[in-house]
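A.,

Following up on our hallway conversation. Structure tokens first:
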């Protein structure tokens, strides 16, 4: 039977312990362990550590599993954070798109009341004009800019007065030139207003947008 060196014996120890060596090599190992005190000692230590799994080793494995689990939870948390940020970004982008589209809707489908009056002379007195279907100005949609434009084709400037249904003056402006506009932000939505003007000329074109 061939003899083996201590280093080869050490290499073979785990396989020997598992009983996976060939019969011949097993015999060689057995012989070496019987004759070599150092290797025998080492083998016995190894056997104690591996063949009888100590509670220490189990604890180690539990720790490892726990660590892995924590790692997974942490990864999940990071992922949740990333998803949350992504969703928030989507909401922002979505909101912006809606806003943009309202802008587009505004530009192309902006509602307006158009009033054109020919050959007018109010003789310096306030005269009621009819705006909208029932004669009253009513900004009944969010798409109104709430502005009045005296169209540039108008022949002269006008004076404007806006009153609520009770006759309270909400807004008064003495001279609005053709091409100019006046802010009607003060007016509430879904509220009827009586519009009066003072004007003189061939044509007055008013846009309530
Ligand atoms: Zn040896």
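Then the amino acids I'd put at each of the 209 positions:
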């Amino acid at each position: 039977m061939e003899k083996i060196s201590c280093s080869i014996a050490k290499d073979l120890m785990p396989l020997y312990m598992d009983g996976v060596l060939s019969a011949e090599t097993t015999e060689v190992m057995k012989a070496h362990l019987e004759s070599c005190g150092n290797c025998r000692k080492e083998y016995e230590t190894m056997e104690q550590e591996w063949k009888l799994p100590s509670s220490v080793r189990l604890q180690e494995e539990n720790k490892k599993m726990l660590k892995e689990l924590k790692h997974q939870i942490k990864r999940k948390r990071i992922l949740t954070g990333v998803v949350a940020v992504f969703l928030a970004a989507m909401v922002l982008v979505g909101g912006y798109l809606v806003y943009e589209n309202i802008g587009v809707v505004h530009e192309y489908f902006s509602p307006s009341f158009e009033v054109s009056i020919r050959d007018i002379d109010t003789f310096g007195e306030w005269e009621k004009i009819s705006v909208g279907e029932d004669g009253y100005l009513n900004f009944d949609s969010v798409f109104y800019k709430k502005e009045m434009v005296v169209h540039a084709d108008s022949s002269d400037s006008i004076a404007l007065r806006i009153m609520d249904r009770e006759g309270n003056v909400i807004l008064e402006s003495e001279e609005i030139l053709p091409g100019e506009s006046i802010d009607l932000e003060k007016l509430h939505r879904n509220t009827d207003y009586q519009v009066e003007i003072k004007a003189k000329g061939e044509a007055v074109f008013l846009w309530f947008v």
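Helices lie at 6-18, 23-35, 37-51, 55-109. Curious whether your intuition agrees with the design.

B.
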